[in-house]
Here is the input.
Amino acid sequence: HVQPVESGGGLVEAGGSLRLSCEASRILASINAMGWFRQFPGKQREFVASMPRRGASTYADSVKGRFTISRDKDKNLVYLQMNGLKPEDTAIYYCNEGGTYVSGRYLPNLRGWGQGTQVTVSS
Here is the structure.
């Protein structure tokens, strides 16, 4: 596949957890950085978390302390562990591969989007 592929979305109750997976389209070691975004109905995609090939991960303020981005190089997967989910986390979550950092901010690769996976959190 030429695009990353997300999986792991679903329906969960408030306070619950989900782990999203993103299979990169090429070997992780060759990708500058990976990111997760989400999109609410009628809104633009917003940044959630990112992980550079080297260095510290970054998070949106709204998910700090609840979400964790990680990777498994052997499986070529990037994960988004989501704990303490809230109804306002309900969105389509997208993986992005190959973005860059400008002033510490992750800018997505416009050609690096996956198809998205739906996360729904019930109250």
Summary: Residues 88 and 121 are 8 Å apart (CA to CA).
